[in-house]
TrEMBL record:
Keywords: Hydrolase. It is an enzyme of class 3 (hydrolase). Its EC number is 3.1.3.48. It comes from Wickerhamomyces ciferrii (strain ATCC 14091 / BCRC 22168 / CBS 111 / JCM 3599 / NBRC 0793 / NRRL Y-1031 F-60-10) (Yeast). PANTHER family: TYROSINE-PROTEIN PHOSPHATASE, TYROSINE-PROTEIN PHOSPHATASE OCA6-RELATED. This is Tyrosine-protein phosphatase. It holds the Pfam family Y_phosphatase2. It comes from the Eukaryota. SUPFAM superfamilies: (Phosphotyrosine protein) phosphatases II (SSF52799).
Length: 204
């Protein structure tokens, strides 16, 4: 069958490859399924108000089932308002859950999405960049690529992100490349621990 008969490969809105085998974008629609199938996804993480079920999105659910893709739902609110009045519809606990999946190679390839691929996904990815020691300026510049605006609530949420992150036994190979364990263990706002609750700098 020719490419013309199959139709075009259409990525989801605001789609991007963040790192090898880690992708972001908007809520997938039927037109995006062929594109997503070619990524060989193992997991799709939905940062949305409701989970993907046969009742609320039969086509998406069946696409995942047919392609052996596991669906993970992390509850978040809807993107709210515009510009200065826009609130923050995701909590730190939800971000931590998402980050621990994104840095675990056992969940790769992974696609993370919110409803429109904008604010919610961008807040989670901004925290991933903070975990990766990106500067605030670089984080905010990337944020603006996908949202067109960043307000005080967004900036405060990112700057005040303080958490304990569980480092999986099989972490992705792109995280902290070139950094020593002493540097990683002295992150100014984040604490990294393994399953035995050791500080990351103590992990051999």
């Amino acid at each position: 069958m020719t490419q013309d008969k199959l139709g075009p490969l259409v990525p989801p809105l605001r789609f991007a490859a963040l790192q090898p085998r880690l992708y972001r974008g908007s809520y997938p629609r039927q037109i995006n399924y062929r594109f997503l199938k070619r990524l060989g996804l193992k997991y799709i993480v939905s940062l949305t108000p409701d989970p993907i079920t046969p009742e609320n999105d039969k086509e998406f659910y069946e696409f995942a089932q047919e392609n052996n893709i596991q669906l993970v739902h992390i509850e978040c609110g809807k993107e709210g308002g515009k510009r200065k009045k826009r609130g923050v519809p995701i909590g730190y606990s939800a971000v931590v859950k998402a980050l621990e999946l994104m840095i675990n190679v056992d969940y790769s390839p992974l696609y993370v999405h919110c409803l429109n691929g904008g604010q919610v996904s961008s807040l989670a990815i901004a925290c991933l960049r903070k975990l990766s020691f990106w500067s605030s300026v670089t984080i905010f510049n990337e944020f603006l690529v996908y949202t067109n605006s960043i307000n005080l609530h967004d900036r405060t949420f990112i700057e005040n992100f303080i958490a304990e992150i569980n480092v999986p036994e099989h972490k992705v190979n792109w995280i902290w490349t070139g950094l020593s364990k002493d540097i990683i263990g002295s992150h100014p706002t984040l604490k990294f621990v393994n399953t035995n609750d050791k500080k990351y700098s103590d992990i051999s």
